[in-house]
Every structure is written in C-alpha cells, then in structure tokens.
Amino acid sequence: MNISAIQTFLCVVRTRNLNRAAEELNVTQSAVTARLDTLEQALGAKLLIRSRKGAALTKEGFAFLEQAEVITRSWENARARISLPSGVTRLFSFVCDPCLWTGLGEAWTAQIRSGHPETAFEIWSGTAGDARSWLQSGMSDAALLTEPLTGAGFESRELAADDLIQVAIQPRKAVKWDPGYIYVDYGPAIRAQHAETWPTGETAAVAFSNPDWALRHLLAHGGSAYLPRRMVAGLVAEGRLFEVEGSAAFSQRVFLSWRKGRHEIFSWLADQGSAA
Length: 276
Known about the structure:
It is a single chain. By secondary structure, the chain is of the alpha/beta class. It has three domains: 3-70, Arc Repressor Mutant, subunit A; 82-159 and 254-274, Periplasmic binding protein-like II (D-Maltodextrin-Binding Protein, domain 2), CATH 3.40.190.10; 162-252, 3-Layer(aba) Sandwich (D-Maltodextrin-Binding Protein, domain 2), CATH 3.40.190. Helix content is 42%, strand content 24%. The protein contains nine helices and eleven strands. The chain has helices at residues 3-15, 18-25, 29-43, 59-82, 101-115, 128-137, 188-197, 211-221, 229-238, and strands at 48-51, 54-57, 90-96, 119-125, 142-145, 154-168, 181-184, 206-208, 224-228, 242-243, 250-259. The strands form two sheets. Strands 3, 4, 5, 6, 7, 8, 9, 10 and 11 form a nine-stranded mixed β-sheet that branches. Strands 1-2 form a two-stranded antiparallel sheet. Helix 5 links the parallel strand 3 (90-96) and strand 4. The longest helix is centred in the first third of the chain and has 24 residues, at 59-82. It is globular and about 65 Å long.
C-alpha cells in the first residue's frame, strides 16, 4: 500500500468517476485502476463498485474512507514539517471551528505568531468531530471549539467567553418578533437560551449555521440577528449596524484543546495569559 494509491482512492470517491479522477491526477485510467487494485489487494477488501456509469463506495470502502483522509492529511503534514522554510524550526497545526475564526481565532493566532517567529502555522477549518480525529491521529496539535475535547489524550482550558448580541440594520427597540429576523444556530446551549428568551411560535425565514454568512446576508438584505460582539463591534461603531435596545445578550464559552503533552512544545497552549 502506498500514499498515491490512497490519494487515488479519495479522488475517485470525490469525482465518482475513474476517467475524471485520471484527468485530475494527470495519469491514465489504467493507472487509476491499477492503484485501486493494489489498494484493495493490500486491504483484502473491495472498496469500490466500479462500472461504466461511475464508482460507488462499498460498505468496506465507506469504513476505510475516514482513515484514508487521516492518512493523507498526516502525509501532507509530515511533508510540511520536513520542508519548513529557513529560520523556521517547527510547525504548529491548529484546528478552528469556522464560527470562531473572525475576530477570535484570527486574533489569537496573530498574537501567538507575533511572539514566535520560529514557528510556522497551518490552520484548518473543522468541527469538534474533525478536531478529535485529527488530534488523535497526530495530524493536528490543538483546536479552538465551543466545547472542550474530553478523554485521556486531551487537555483543555477555557480561552474566552463569546458574547452574542442582537443587532439590526436600523436602530430599534426589542420587539416580540421581527419579520426580518435571521436565525443563527450556535448549538444546543445557545439554542436553549434563545428559546427561553424568545418563546415565540414564529420561524425565521432565513437561518444560518455560520455567523459570517449571516452577517453578510444581514448587510445585504436587512433584518436583525444574534451575532458575536467581536464580529460586529466595528460595524456598530461605524453606524452600519445597531445593537437592538433592550434585547437580551447570550454568551458561549470557547475552549482551547490540545493533544496531551503538546504544551511542553508549544507553551502558549497552557498559558492563561495568551487569550486574545
């Protein structure tokens, strides 16, 4: 089994077609077939059902898919660590929940980078499930999430409290229901607080799972939404958005989790003073 065979498998899964995979990889279709045959022989299982119409995962192929992604990312990570630029002695691989990047993850990363020019940073967007898998495999070192990673292999600390405020495109006071309200799903904890604070039977016409997308929609189409203060403070100061008067604010905890022992290499992980 070799890395090119696994990369080919992932390409076929993504394109669902051996011909398209061959074009993307710049090899012949026979080379793609040979690599898949080699991989299946090494694993002792059929991974794909191949036909003229395309390729589909078998039960065994689906089971192998996550491990194939981890192996490929680990390989890319290893290559990056080996080929660090001059003056850089180590690589810090960081996973950030996409909802926490703007104004929080980016500020924390910039702060750490300014004091550690000897360290190269790679930053991945991922959920808690992604982060757990990537940290367990050694592919990544730490993660910024709205919940701590728990278990024997992880260490965590609370990094910040993320305040969520209701803002609108026009100045106004809190009302029972805004027809232009944009719902942002921040997960179970905030969902429960929101339902208790706003016990209405109305359903928002537009909902997002990412506050950055919700903000763009709000600025383009109007309405109101709960968004992180870190994200909208500048827009409120400029008069482009307005904090809804009398509206309740919510707060979610943000955690930094890392592979056990990584703080001995990257001291800022356990440094309580490094929160942005």
